[in-house]
User: Which sequence fits this backbone?
């Protein structure tokens, strides 16, 4: 379990944003910059408290930090094979469940999380706080607990109960830090299926995931096609795009530039809270959309404190270099809320795993990855036909025509996704998503169909919430899931 920290600043302290001048020396005063030193001072005084805090501002999904007593932990003493390293000597997987497991254990849905989410996807008797997918899980909801047994894990590499960089290395007795091995999305799936083995679950009814969870849902079907009944990928991708890699690299760069990061060995000192705040601000920009910013904030300025209201001098309001626009105060607040809630190394490792995800056949071959081929497939099965010889059944329509120049890697991607050829798959994209664009969703659908999968359902959603639509649009996202699973 990582050392997580409580943000000591009140909302009013966080939102000091005006530019003032000291009467004594007439030098500029920047409260938004000095807030970092104030935060650090409170962290020192608090003795690195691990208590959580929460926010309820705006239409933001809750990210309740799970209480250690409210989730289960599966400990596997056996080594876990890794993609880029030899072995992880042993590992823990934190998980929570909802619903009732059927006698045949054939009603299990494995729910995969995004980058920073915990296993607490919905409230439970032991933890009644709302989960990050609260409105999607429960009786009569899209993931209907009257019919299904839902399992959600904290991925390895995380910091909410599963083994990650903040965990203790059994060989040294100290935190792994950046001695932790580089992970892949496939490694996360291997650990999850070891949990399923422990629970006696031979086959999933469905593998469901959003964002990075969409990557995991595809990887689960790819690694174990005989053990996955259906796949749901919402705002995911089968191949991380250069633009998404660039956005996550910028986040890691500002985080690793924080002196407190200390090459990843900060667990006995101060966390890199400033770098984490800036990284979260960058991430937030990628999670929402310009049209939402415009309708929600426009170009409105923050309200000045009554003591700072300009006198009736006829002069315009003096702009501030600290947050002045409402959108700036929003990003500042989101960064402040997150910077002490999540482990910095977990963000670095998991975001890197997302960057490395690429299901083109050429990449999979270089990684020596092999899927467990279903024994029911015959040598003349259509999935063995080279994608170049399969009719291109595209996901496009009259309103969404195919691109003039399809991506050159599409046949390579189709070849790589052939193990998924017999798994019914739902793909949901969001037109306002700038992180996992609809073009990537269409590529997935096209590649699967070229690979011989005739059970692909593909939908594009409108709205202004961008990538976070999967967290907020219960009607459309939930309706599509409900229809597909039933």
Assistant:
């Amino acid at each position: 379990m990582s050392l997580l920290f409580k943000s000591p600043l009140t909302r009013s302290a966080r939102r000091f944003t005006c530019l003032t001048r000291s009467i004594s020396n007439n030098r500029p005063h920047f409260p938004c910059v000095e807030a970092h030193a104030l935060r650090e001072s409170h962290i020192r005084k608090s003795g690195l408290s691990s208590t959580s805090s929460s926010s309820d501002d705006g239409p933001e999904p809750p990210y309740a930090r799970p209480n250690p007593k409210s989730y289960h932990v599966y400990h596997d003493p056996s080594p876990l094979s890794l993609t880029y390293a030899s072995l992880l000597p042993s590992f823990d997987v934190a998980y929570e469940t909802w619903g009732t497991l059927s006698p045949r254990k054939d009603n299990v849905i494995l729910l995969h999380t995004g980058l920073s989410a915990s296993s607490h996807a919905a409230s439970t008797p032991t933890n009644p706080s709302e989960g990050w997918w609260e409105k999607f899980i429960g009786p009569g909801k899209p993931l209907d607990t009257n019919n299904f047994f839902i399992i959600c894990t904290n991925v390895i590499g995380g910091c909410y109960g599963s083994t990650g960089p903040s965990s203790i290395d059994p060989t040294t007795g100290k935190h792994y830090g950046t001695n932790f091995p580089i992970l892949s999305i496939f490694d996360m799936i291997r650990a999850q299926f070891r949990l399923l083995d422990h629970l006696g679950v031979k086959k999933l009814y469905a593998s469901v995931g959003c964002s990075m969870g969409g990557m995991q849902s595809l990887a689960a079907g790819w690694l174990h096609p005989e053990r996955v009944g259906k796949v749901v990928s919402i705002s995911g991708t089968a191949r991380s795009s250069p633009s998404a890699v660039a956005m996550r690299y910028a986040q890691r760069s500002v985080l690793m530039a924080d002196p407190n990061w200390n090459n990843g060995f900060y667990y006995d000192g101060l966390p890199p809270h400033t770098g984490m705040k800036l990284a979260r601000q960058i991430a937030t920009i990628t999670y929402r959309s310009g049209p939402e910013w415009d309708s929600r904030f426009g170009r409105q300025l923050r309200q000045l404190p009554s003591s700072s209201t300009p006198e009736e001098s006829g002069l315009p309001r003096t702009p501030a270099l600290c947050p002045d626009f409402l959108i700036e105060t929003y990003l500042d607040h989101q960064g402040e809320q997150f910077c002490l809630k999540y482990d910095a190394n977990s963000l670095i490792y998991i975001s890197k795993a997302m960057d490395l995800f690429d299901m083109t056949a050429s990449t999979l071959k270089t990684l020596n990855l092999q899927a467990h081929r279903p024994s029911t497939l015959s040598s003349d099965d259509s999935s063995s036909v080279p994608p170049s010889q399969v009719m291109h059944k595209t996901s496009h329509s009259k309103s969404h025509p195919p691109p003039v120049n399809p991506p050159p890697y599409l046949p390579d991607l189709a070849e790589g996704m052939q193990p998924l050829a017999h798994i019914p798959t739902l793909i949901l994209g969001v037109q306002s998503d700038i992180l996992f664009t609809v073009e990537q969703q269409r590529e997935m659908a096209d590649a699967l169909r070229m690979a011989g999968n005739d059970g692909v359902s593909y939908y594009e959603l409108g709205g202004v919430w961008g990538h976070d639509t999967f967290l907020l649009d219960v009607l459309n996202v939930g309706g599509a899931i409900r229809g597909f699973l039933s």
